[in-house]
Design brief:
By secondary structure, the protein is of the alpha+beta class. The protein has three helices and six strands. About 30% of the residues lie in helices and about 30% in strands. Strands 1-2-3-6-4-5 form a six-stranded mixed sheet, with helices on one face. α2 crosses α3. It is globular, with a radius of gyration of 14 Å.
Length: about 140
């Protein structure tokens, strides 16, 4: 079975100094296998490591991080086939999340599951998004 690990460059403008989290926590940003790209949970942390207070900005950052991982693999957001997002205070933040998502995700839409959680890895994080994309030659 062929598996390819996606490495985020150390000089990534999108990930910035947060790129070290992959090595620090022992996981890959994404893994390609059997025509699909499995993207680890991405969060709304700025490249400088700070966390915005609002859900719209966190959602935008998380989706742009996914977009950057896709770009590194020659894909774009239209390659997404399945997405799961984890939300702190989901009912309070759903409108802001939906607004930010609608500005970045266009038809044809991937499947998407929203799950409410009590917390994420760092205080202040409101959303984490994991995704699966398909390569064009995958059937």
């Amino acid at each position: 079975m062929a598996i390819h690990t996606v490495e985020i460059p150390q000089d990534s403008e999108v990930f910035g100094k947060t790129v070290s989290a992959f090595a620090n926590f022992g996981y890959s940003a994404a893994v390609r296998s059997h025509g699909h790209l499995f993207i680890a949970g991405t969060i709304g942390r700025r490249a400088d490591g700070t966390i915005p207070d609002d859900i719209e900005e966190q959602t935008g950052i998380a989706i742009r991080r996914i977009e950057e991982i896709l770009r590194l693999e020659g894909l774009d957001l239209s390659a997404l086939v399945d997405v799961t997002s984890y939300h702190v205070d989901i009912h309070q933040h759903l409108a802001g999340f939906s607004k930010a998502k609608s500005q970045l995700i266009n038809p044809p839409y991937p499947t998407w599951s929203l799950i409410g959680v009590s917390g994420l890895a760092s205080p202040g994080l409101l959303i984490e998004i994991r995704a699966t994309a398909a390569y064009p030659d995958a059937s």
